[in-house]
């Protein structure tokens, strides 16, 4: 019966908090309240049921909704422009730009940076609304205390979802659920497409290059896998380009680097020029010949050809080609061997030096304008739908009035100082561990005061700290697993390859076809890492928020100051930060994770390739794969490592504890906010307060049981070892 009576009293008191608070307004504050009537009238156009004392929240959530709608307009503008100019193809590809590969790469990288900036805005806005929605009201806290439970104050809480009203849980769930697929698809809405060129390799003597006007007879001796007329036409085409000085000269090492790739997007057919006119040639790919005589010398057979091909298998000599598993990647896996012997490079020849013909230099055809930046209309439609739902949910949150939620610890302190909680009376030194028991076991007995130092990980909760470290460790191990085959085992160079490119293309994670289904699959795989990064953000945000809440709570034992509240501040009260998190932490945190989202989009990404034949400037087929950039992964891992070090160091740092350990527990705040009657009468919750021993030094015997709490009047330093209740 007593418990039911206390619960009824708590519920009744919570209903009248907003009306009773007007009695405590100082004269100047009352005048200000009267002047706010005009402002409230103007706000009703957008906030028809708004209360000026909670108007800050409505303005903030309306700003969040406005940001979400601005992002929606950006996405919609791209979608409408692309659909109007490119249609809605069933292949799932709309090109936004087509031309120079370097320009296309810069546009793609810039658009992804913009996308991740907008995504960060959505994450910040969603997090703001979600934390407010999960914040309990005074009535919900009172009911939880009456049932022997407590709720989280000042942090994004899953625990509170089991207690708060259903419509807030529904809105919270909508914001959370739309964030998951939004991050999954947003970065795949725009992607880079590179062209892969089929090409011929023509082995010629220096005389072929010097005698540019000469013609060569053709004697048919075609192998089974080469069209002899196509070869002859290619020889004549390359000779024409040679006469126009349209070929680019490359030294052997540059030629190896240029052609030793899986996807050739920069160069076309190539002349391999040799000064050695007497060495024999071992025909490994059945090279057709122009002016074919009985001799195998280069002088008598000035032109030999191989192709058309997409890979670099022709670059290896017979020894390497037969002894190594080159596969469809050609000689890419033998890059280091080829570079080390560039001065003695003998493509498609025997390994014995006395039987081979070295290449002196190359004359390569440079290809321009076969890269593009594309968007997927199907993915864009999904992103638009999710963005719209999220924006509407935020708008609904901004227009619905809830009871005054205890968003920050200042809100909770204000409420309990105004109307004390009867269930926690006599527990002024109780910490969260004291409230883990059932209500019947909440021991209302005096406790001795002790001043100590604890590690910050204990202040925020070791489970939260260890969980955060575990998430970072798993992410780092996973990232190093990706980079180690490239950087450690194979000794590849990383720095020459930029963001959003997978080097020579031989280490694609997965490969698929060019259909719409394969495109969607690679999008899901590429952006699944964005979900993990979002989880890391919320875990880091929760850790830093809990740490800042504990620091602010402890500061009231050392300084007298006004309460930091999320509603409109009154008298000595102070306005809140980005909810509980100070701007000096919240803004850098958003910026850092926004950049990390961009780095992830450039680290593991959808790789779309269009294949061009050697003679026709029309795509013959498309393919998709999952590529990764070693450089972007290394930078991302370095950033994650720095964040992990920050969290570990912060957790091991010690802090002075002069007040009960908070850990966002509502019962701890309620127990510490048991003011004197005169503090309630004068409205201490509106003034500057400090926590300490509320007994006058000369008014009581030190052997008596004292009381600690918040007051705008005198408070002293609690006495070590003295009992308080």
Task: Characterise the protein shown here.
The chain is an alpha+beta fold and 725 residues long. It folds into 4 domains: 1-29 and 408-451 and 658-725, no CATH class; 46-134 and 166-187 and 377-401, no CATH class; 194-373, no CATH class; 459-607 and 628-653, no CATH class. Helices cover 46% and strands 14% of the residues. It is built from 22 helices and 20 strands. A 6-stranded mixed beta sheet has the order 1-9-2-15-16-12. A hairpin with a 6-residue loop joins strand 15 and strand 16. The longest helix has 40 residues, at 516-555. The radius of gyration is 36 Å and the shape is elongated. The relative contact order is 0.15. Mean pLDDT is 75; it is low at 1-7, 9-37, 39-54, 214-227, 278-301, 318-330 and 350-355.
Short description:
It is built from 22 helices and 20 strands.
Count of extended strands: 20
Distance between the termini: 24 Å
Number of helices: 22
The main pleated sheet reads as: 6 strands, mixed
Query: Which strands sit side by side, in order, in the main sheet?
Result: 1-9-2-15-16-12
**Count of individual domains:** 4
Give me the secondary-structure category: alpha+beta
Rg calculated over all Cα atoms = 36 Å
Average pLDDT figure: 75
Give the fraction of residues assigned to helices: 40-55%
Strand content: 5-15%
Unreliable spans: 1-7, 9-37, 39-54, 214-227, 278-301, 318-330, 350-355
List keywords for this structure.
single chain, 725 residues, alpha+beta, 4 domains, 6-stranded mixed beta sheet, 22 helices, 20 strands, elongated, disordered N terminus
């Amino acid at each position: 019966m007593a418990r039911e009576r206390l619960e009824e009293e708590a519920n009744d008191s919570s209903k009248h908090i907003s009306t009773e608070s007007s009695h405590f307004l100082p004269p100047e504050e009352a005048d200000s309240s009267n002047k706010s009537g005009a402002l409230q009238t103007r706000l009703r156009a957008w906030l028809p049921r708004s209360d000026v004392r909670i108007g800050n929240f409505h303005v903030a959530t309306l700003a969040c909704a406005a940001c979400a709608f601005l992002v929606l307009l950006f996405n919609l503008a791209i979608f409408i422009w692309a659909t109007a100019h490119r249609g809605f193809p069933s292949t799932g590809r709309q090109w936004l730009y087509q031309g120079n590969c370097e320009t296309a790469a810069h546009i793609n990288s810039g658009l992804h940076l913009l996308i991740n900036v907008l995504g960060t805005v959505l994450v910040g806005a969603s997090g703001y609304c979600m934390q407010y929605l999960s914040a309990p009201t005074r009535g919900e806290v009172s009911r939880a205390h009456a049932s022997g439970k407590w709720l989280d104050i000042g942090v994004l809480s899953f625990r509170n979802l089991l207690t708060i009203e259903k419509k807030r849980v529904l809105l919270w769930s909508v914001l959370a659920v739309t964030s998951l697929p939004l991050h999954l698809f947003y970065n795949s809405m725009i992607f880079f497409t590179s062209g892969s060129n089929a090409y011929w390799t023509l082995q010629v003597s220096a005389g072929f290059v010097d005698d540019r006007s000469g013609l060569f007879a053709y004697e048919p001796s075609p192998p089974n896998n080469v069209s002899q007329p196509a070869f002859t036409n290619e020889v004549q085409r390359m000779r024409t380009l040679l006469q126009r000085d349209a070929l680019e000269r490359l030294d052997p090492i540059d030629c190896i680097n240029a052609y030793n790739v899986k996807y050739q997007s920069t160069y076309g057919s190539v002349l391999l020029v040799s000064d050695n006119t007497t060495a024999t040639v071992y025909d490994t790919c059945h090279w057709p010949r122009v002016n074919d005589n009985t001799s195998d010398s280069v002088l008598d057979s000035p032109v030999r050809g191989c192709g058309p091909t997409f890979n670099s298998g022709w670059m290896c000599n017979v020894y390497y080609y037969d002894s190594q598993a080159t596969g469809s990647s050609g000689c890419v896996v033998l890059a280091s061997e080829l570079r080390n012997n560039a001065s003695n490079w003998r493509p498609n020849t025997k390994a014995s030096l006395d039987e081979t013909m070295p290449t002196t230099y190359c004359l390569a055809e440079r290809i321009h304008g076969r890269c593009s930046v594309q968007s997927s209309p199907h993915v864009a439609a999904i992103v638009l739908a999710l963005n719209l739902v999220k924006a509407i949910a935020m708008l609904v949150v901004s227009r619905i009035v809830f009871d005054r939620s205890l968003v920050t610890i200042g809100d909770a302190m204000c409420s309990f100082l105004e109307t004390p909680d009867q269930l926690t009376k006599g527990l002024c030194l109780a910490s969260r561990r004291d409230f883990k028991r059932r209500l019947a076991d909440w021991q209302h007995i005096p406790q001795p005061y002790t001043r100590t130092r604890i590690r910050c990980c204990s202040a925020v909760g070791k489970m939260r700290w260890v969980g955060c470290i575990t998430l970072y460790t798993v992410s780092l191990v996973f990232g190093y697993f990706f980079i180690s085959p490239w950087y450690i085992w194979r000794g590849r160079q990383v720095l020459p390859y930029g963001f959003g490119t997978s080097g020579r293309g031989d280490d694609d994670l997965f490969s698929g076809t060019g259909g719409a289904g394969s495109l969607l699959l690679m999008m899901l795989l590429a952006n699944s890492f964005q979900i993990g990064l979002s989880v890391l953000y919320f875990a880091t945000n929760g850790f830093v928020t809990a740490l800042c809440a504990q620091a602010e709570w402890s500061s009231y034992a050392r300084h007298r100051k006004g309460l930091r509240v999320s509603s409109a501040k009154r008298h000595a009260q102070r306005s809140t930060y980005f909810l509980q998190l100070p701007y000096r932490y919240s803004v850098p945190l958003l910026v850092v994770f926004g950049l990390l989202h961009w780095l992830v989009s450039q680290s593991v990404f959808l790789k779309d390739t269009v294949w061009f034949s050697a003679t026709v400037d029309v795509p013959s087929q498309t393919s998709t794969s999952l590529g990764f950039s070693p450089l972007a992964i290394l930078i991302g891992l370095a950033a994650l490592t720095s964040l992990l070090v920050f969290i570990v160091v912060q957790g091991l740092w010690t802090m002075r504890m002069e007040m009960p350990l908070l850990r966002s527990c509502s019962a701890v705040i309620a127990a510490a906010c048991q003011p004197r009657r005169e503090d309630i009468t004068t409205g201490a919750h509106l003034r500057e307060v400090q926590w300490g021993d509320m007994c006058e030094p000369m008014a009581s015997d030190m052997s008596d049981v004292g009381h600690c709490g918040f007051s705008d009047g005198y408070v002293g330093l609690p006495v070590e070892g003295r009992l308080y209740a």
